[in-house]
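Whether sequence alone determines local backbone shape is best considered at the level of individual chains. When preparing material for the folding task, we compiled for one chain both its residues and its backbone structure tokens. The sequence in question and its structure tokens are set out directly beneath this paragraph.
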Amino acid sequence: MRIVFMGTPDFAVPSLKLLLEQQYNVVAVVTQPDRPKGRKKTLTPPPVKEAALSFNLPVLQPERMRNADAVAAIAELKPDLIVTAAYGQILPKALLDIPRLGCINVHGSLLPKYRGGAPIQRSIINGESSTGVTIMYMAEGLDTGDMISVVELPITDEDTSGTMFEKLSLAGAELLRETLPSIMSGEAKAIPQQHEQATYAPNLTREDELIDWAKSAREVFNQVRGLSPMAGAFTYLNGEVFKIWACAEAESQTPIRSAAPGAVLAADSQGIHVQTGDGVLLLKEIQPAGKRVMNAAEWLKGARLETDTLLGAEVRHDG
């Protein structure tokens, strides 16, 4: 049985390792090209490539999977099955038609909810209490294929995108272990999705990272968790980007006093208390422009933050 594995970020690594640990015949790994990373823009291989090379597996990195040459290269491998996990590109029909057992995807949501590229982040940002992993047959649409198996996990207030990525990546690998024998034997049951219940999770943009203080404390709390530790949520302080990496809803939802959304109500050993459209948010871990991530109380020892300072006002320079 010949398997081609396709994946890119850390989320996909446990699934690749599971295939190898279970002694499946992975004939090649397909991943995204190396990309510049960090302030120095150092060309960096994706985590799946690093894992594949550590096992001496052949690695293909086509820029566009819809390219005929890329499809031909995979066809030459004669895969019986293609397994994908967070690969990052929509696969063309010409590729989906190659393996006799089809193409399956380890997707980080409870389909048909949160189809798309950022299901884990969006589920947290939207305040979901649970999420999960769906293994599905791939079709031409965006995560529209028939489902094979599902596992559900809770999302707690302590979870961030980082913790849920790790939990779901491991759960996905375990679900893959349980599901593959039925796929190999041809006994897997394909369950059509209820397309009318579909919701979408498009990739995050800069606008998704900007905090709107008119929202409730709970909504901003979820936004911060959903963007940590990847991009991070941000506001503006004195016209400069001010990132927030960790926060909490104030124990009392009653404002210390009447103030506009985004106003600093107090700055003390607990952190920075900020008025929202509904309730008070306590900023606990922050990153001022040009500085490292630090505890808010630590930053306040050397920074002067006046009460009534308004977060969120960007200084624009015309001309």
